[in-house]
Protein: Phosphatidylglycerol--prolipoprotein diacylglyceryl transferase
Amino acid sequence: MYALCILLGIILAVVITSRRLTRRGAEPGVVLDIALWAVPLGIIGARLYHVLTHPADYFYEGANIWNPFQPGAIWNIWEGGNAIFGSLIGGAVGVLIGCRLTGLRFWSFADALAPGLLVAQAIGRIGNWFNHELFGAPTDLPWGLEIPSDNAAWPQGLAEGTLFHPTFLYELIWNLAGAAVIILLERRMSLRWGKAFGVYLIWYGLGRSFFESIRVDPSEMFLGIRVNVWAAWAAVVIGIVLILVQRHRHPGLEPSVYVPGREWVRPDPEVDSDDTESDSDSLDDGVEGEPAEGATAATSPGRPVSE
Structure:
């Protein structure tokens, strides 16, 4: 069920990003060319980040690290263990590769992705409910989460029937609210050149730093603070710097979501009609396949041209 939630989140992110990019002048469906790189590298990054931040679970005397046919190997993603911060790093590498291949601006794609990414993360958190994992400290609030006492993450010393904060539910609500905030802000100000993605980093980092701090699952510590809290604070700082720098360098909208010389030109229906008539005239004249006088390769429907 967790895997299905992640897949559903990915699909929603692709759909939302595709619609936003298309409205901004990108070729319909081009997001799939980037997703083919971003999704696999995001999964790899999520796994590697988890392994590196939980070294005691994998690197010990007699541990099976490399053999995927034995339990405990670092490759055995089906045994659990992924991290969103690692997926962001790996996914960013995939987006860079995809943007290079398609000609899209990296920051234009990141801005289009920002709300869809929050929606995907929100849907993925539903998987934590199915797995009864990543819950928070004990609580007596009405919405406290009931967890079986035989759960591997059950804190020792607590009485059976203790309720816990559903931190994954808090994050789900926070992420959906963040997606709405980004869309509303875009209607009031210019959030291009990576600034919308900067808002994403700030919003997610602030929420995650709090939710992470009240979780009870084991985590690597650094200076007495969970590693993921440090990562969340780093996301906030990067988001602030990104907005400030890009606001100074690029105060307005991009001239195009494509880099210069790689623009996609939308096919013109009138040109399609004219081309069809020209082809018919050439056939009537007995010159099969020869373009009509004055026609050029640039008028072929769907052909990208450089300006």
Summary: The chain has eight helices and four strands. The two ends are 48 Å apart (CA to CA). Confidence is low (pLDDT under 50) at residues 278-307. The longest strand covers residues 145-146.
